[in-house]
Backbone:
């Protein structure tokens, strides 16, 4: 293959290189313009964890979750922040850089995938917080921690699919941006973050299993809490992640040209 072919806009090498540059730019802008820099990656989930830990352990009698509860919270709150911030940014993915979106020869899906990658890197940057709390709270780690990378992969597939679905729709219909914010607020409490999937009573456990985050959060947690292993939500989540990716790719292909006209 010639050098010109390798550098062509449509080649995977060029795409991945551009994806990395855009994601690195996002991270540099985020950290360079803030005096706290890296701390912002961990401050939000840390404050949320502290609030829920205080409320459910010091004020109210807690009947959900596992001990140590702070680890139980953080191991789900960190991926939730990745999910929440990514989907929020999807709603502005094209409008934020509309001039570049119109003029670049790189496939437009890169404006979605760069959000998933940059927010995913921030998620990985926050892992030392989980490690520290696990060590100091005396949490036990089992071989099921090997499911943790699988959870990351599934969440990546889910986010890419949602991004390809949400970004073009929000570019065409402005009201969907506020609607997405409301859905995310409700989804936090509908997802097993402050509780586990096992805590859901019937028939809500059947309904909750079709929330793809239920299976993903289960995989994140089983390394510390093996008793939380539930195959049903994990299998349903895996199927739904692939299904949402397929739907997102189909939707993006149909709406890409109308979005460019709208921008």
Residues:
């Amino acid at each position: 293959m010639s050098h010109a072919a390798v550098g062509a806009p449509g080649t995977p090498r060029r795409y991945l290189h551009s994806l990395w540059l855009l994601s690195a730019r996002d991270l540099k802008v985020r950290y360079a313009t803030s005096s706290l820099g890296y701390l912002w990656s961990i401050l939000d989930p840390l404050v949320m964890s502290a609030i829920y830990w205080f409320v459910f352990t010091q004020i109210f009698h807690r009947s959900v979750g596992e001990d140590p509860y702070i680890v139980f919270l953080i191991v789900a709150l960190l991926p939730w922040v990745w999910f929440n911030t990514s989907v929020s940014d999807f709603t502005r993915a094209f409008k934020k850089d509309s001039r570049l979106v119109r003029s670049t020869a790189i496939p437009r899906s890169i404006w979605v995938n760069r959000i998933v990658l940059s927010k995913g890197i921030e998620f990985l940057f926050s892992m030392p917080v989980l490690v520290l709390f696990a060590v100091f709270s005396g949490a036990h780690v089992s071989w099921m921690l090997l499911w943790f990378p699988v959870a990351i992969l599934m969440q990546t597939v889910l986010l890419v699919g949602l991004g390809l679905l949400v970004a073009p729709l929000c570019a065409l219909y402005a009201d969907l941006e506020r609607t997405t914010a409301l859905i995310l607020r409700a989804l936090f409490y509908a997802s097993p973050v402050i509780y586990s999937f096992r805590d859901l009573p019937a028939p809500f456990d059947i309904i909750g299993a079709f929330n793809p985050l239920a299976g993903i959060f289960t995989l994140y947690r089983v390394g510390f809490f093996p008793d939380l292993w539930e195959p049903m939500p994990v299998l349903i989540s895996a199927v739904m992640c692939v299904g949402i990716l397929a739907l997102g790719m189909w939707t993006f292909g149909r709406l890409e040209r109308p979005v460019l006209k709208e921008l």
